[in-house]
């Protein structure tokens, strides 16, 4: 996994891309509450709006030269929180099996350890790369489809087929990106050790 360097272009906090990312963060508890109470239509709407704002915040930040340090933190944080809240809600409702939730949470725990190691060596966490984004997009497609599969009839059956396909790809890519991240951290730490 290569570190993708996108230079910070502004120190401003109140930019349109950052406001979109903040709105996504505010939507996380609302989304979880809606899933837990069974308001699937509203939960899907919040998740859909989150997906649109996720696309727009990055696109606008690049187009308007508003890439900021805050934005580089908010965007992946919002992605992870939506994934975690969706995992919690769908597992609670027994739409997702516990083993899949455990596999995705184990990957998150592994990345937290890697970020801690990087910080100990004075490195910031690298930016999300294409593989990590692809994994997140697959999971963000999988979860609404799996939520729709919790119904009756052929639409629910079709949603289940596509939902599980996206979940399989997303989980595989999520772990692949995580393993590449571990390899990258190992190289950095090893390079530090040889320069000391």
Describe this protein's structure.
With 196 residues, this protein is mainly α. The chain is 79% helix and 0% strand. Helix 1 packs parallel to helix 3 (69-92) and helix 3 packs parallel to helix 5. The model is unreliable at 1-5 (pLDDT under 50).
Uncertain residue ranges = 1-5
Strand-and-helix sequence, N→C? HHHHHH
Question: Helical element count?
Answer: 6
Shape: globular
- The portion of residues assigned to helices is over 70%
Our estimate of the beta-strand percent is under 5%
Biggest sheet layout? none
Cα-to-Cα separation, first versus last residue: 24 Å
| Average residue-wise pLDDT | 84
Q: What is the SS-derived class?
A: mainly alpha
For the secondary structure, the number of strands is 0
Radius of gyration: 18 Å
Concise summary:
The chain has six helices and no strands.
Spell out the blueprint of helices and strands:
Elements: H1 16-36, H2 40-63, H3 69-92, H4 98-120, H5 130-148, H6 153-195
Helix pairs in contact: 1-2, 1-3, 2-5, 3-5, 4-6, 5-6
What characteristics describe this protein?
disordered N terminus; 196 residues; mainly alpha; single chain
């Amino acid at each position: 996994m290569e570190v993708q360097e996108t230079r910070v272009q502004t120190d401003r906090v109140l930019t349109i891309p950052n406001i979109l990312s903040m709105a996504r963060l505010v939507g996380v508890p609302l989304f979880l509450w809606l899933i837990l109470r069974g308001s699937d239509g509203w939960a899907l709407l919040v998740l859909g709006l989150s997906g649109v704002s996720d696309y727009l915040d990055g696109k606008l930040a690049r187009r308007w030269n508003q890439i900021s340090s805050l934005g580089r933190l908010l965007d992946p944080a919002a992605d992870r929180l939506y994934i975690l809240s969706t995992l919690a809600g769908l597992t609670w409702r027994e739409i997702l099996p516990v083993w899949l939730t455990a596999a995705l949470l184990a990957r998150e725990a592994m990345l937290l350890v890697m970020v801690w190691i990087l910080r100990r060596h004075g490195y910031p966490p690298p930016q999300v790369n294409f593989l990590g984004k692809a994994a997140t997009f697959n999971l963000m497609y999988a979860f609404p489809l799996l939520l729709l599969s919790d119904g009756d009839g052929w639409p629910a059956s079709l949603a289940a087929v596509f939902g599980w396909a996206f979940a399989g790809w997303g989980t595989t890519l999520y772990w692949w990106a995580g393993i590449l991240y571990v390899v990258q951290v190992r190289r950095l730490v090893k390079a530090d050790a040889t320069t000391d």
